Amino acid sequence: MTHSSLLGDLIELNEALDTDRQIDLEERKHRDRHLGRKLQQYRSKPAFQIRLWLQETGSSTARKHSLRGTRLYHTLCLILVATGLLAGWGLASAVLFYDGEHPINIVNAVVILVLPQMLLLLVWLAATLPIRLPLATNIAATLGFLNPGRVAGHLASAVSRKDNPGLAFLWAPDNVAILGPSARWLFSFWSQLFAFSFNIGAIAAAFFLVSFSDLAFVWSTTLDISNESFHRLLTTLSAPWSAFFPDAVPGLELIEKSRYYRLEESSLAGTIATSKQLAIDLGQWWPFLIAALICYGLLPRLLTLAISWYRLRANLRAALCNLPGAPELLARMNSPLVSTLAEQPEEAYEVAADNSANTRESTPYTIRCPIINWSGACGRPDDIIMPLGNMGIEVLEIHRAGGRQTTDQDETLITSLCQDKPEGIGILVKAWEPPLLDFVDFVRSIRRLCDDSKPVIVLLFGGQDSVSAPDSETWQLTLGQLSDPNLHVEPIGRTA
After folding, report:
1. Rounded to whole angstroms, how far apart are CA atoms 160 and 158?
2. Is 376 left (phi over 0), alpha (psi -120 to 50) or beta?
3. 3-state DSSP call for residue 456?
């Protein structure tokens, strides 16, 4: 599977998840868990799981949007390749134009065909480093209108429709945090594809002109540079290929023969016309020019193209797993299936009936326990004493953890609570916030330090509102992956 199909799958997944939300939650649980069991061998490859899920459940509308996006992607790639080839061929042909009167200045040729590419390469490198350099970032932003990748992005946006944004979905402002890296590396891939094609075109034009015309190269500069100094400079520039392509390293004799001054231009043209040997000698600069284009133009762009391709694939995979709704989908596929409507749990996992996905109706409580107010879930914790009492939970005391509390402080609290050997522990959380890794680690710490036979009840607090069913599902599925039969998730009050 190529990154273009990854791109198509990302577009399709965005549409599919939107459509999927209209399906009943219980139906989704059973469907996705069934698929998850079929794809159990790919559990360590979540992006691949999602792509296979799309093959099984994707709608025709979502697939249509995906196909439109991938077709546009391929079209833009072809346009960039063709434009790059033409631009490289055209510029090289203009720089290497020789009419028999004005020899080609090799200094100008290198400065025009090679030096700008090296400078732009440094800007690209600085802009893609993990550590952001303000100057490089500003330069990259200033030169954004010259970036072929950005231009291609504008074209994609121009042809997109409201009902089917296609590629433009990647840089829409709604999901910048998730899709932003993929968009940046797509732009980078496009720009490097153009630059690579440019070098191919320039090298092809140079070979063509060398093969089918008689070129004469000279060098000239207003700077006070001796032949020996110029020779040392070219020897340094030729160091990467000098060992295996020595003919592409200009010698001192060639440098002395080919130096000219503008006042002598007319006489030099006459000499070239009458001296066959001089004409042959002045033509010997072309291997150096070709080698410089390959070494400082083509090969670095091939490397940056490969890096952009690799990073684009990696970020597309990450985006597949982090689109809104994708983590819940993976949880449904890979978590034990326990439904409040089911008569028995899924046999393959032998999950106890009072598993974390159970609700108050299937798990009545008669318990006295301390309550941990996680990350300030409730500003007035005393207000939840009565609702918890109605659930059969008698609050012994209320403690704080998470948020501004350090990990050491949380560990100390857990150790202190476990020493008292409570009947269980309740953790009050914000229902609208998904369980993050620090909370999961906190639960694991409780299990590590306390008796794992005692229940840990995660209490979903919805503030002024009822706890929504999607929020409850997210907590149940995420914590269900811990496979802890004595870990419970309970909304406080009604579930909307």
Report:
1. 6
2. left
3. strand
- For residue 63, give the nearest of 51, 74, 75 by alpha carbon: 51
**Mean pLDDT on 82-92:** 96
pLDDT digits (tens, 9 = 90+) for 431-451: 888 888 888 889 988 988 887
Domain 367-491 CATH assignment equals 3.40.50.300: no
Give me the pLDDT at residue 357, please: 41
DSSP string, 169-208: GGG-GGGHHHHHHHHHHHHHHHHHHHHHHHHHHHHHHHHH
Domain range summary for the chain, segments of one domain joined by +: 65-320, 367-491
* Cα 74 from Cα 97, distance rounded (Å): 34
For helices 407-419 and 437-449, the axis angle rounded to 10 degrees is 30
Cα radius of gyration (the chain)? 34
Q: What is the mean pLDDT of residues 400-404?
A: 86
Distance CA 88, CA 198 (A): 4
Residues ≥6 apart with Cβ < 8 Å to 260 = 103, 218, 219, 220, 268
The model carries a pTM of 0.67
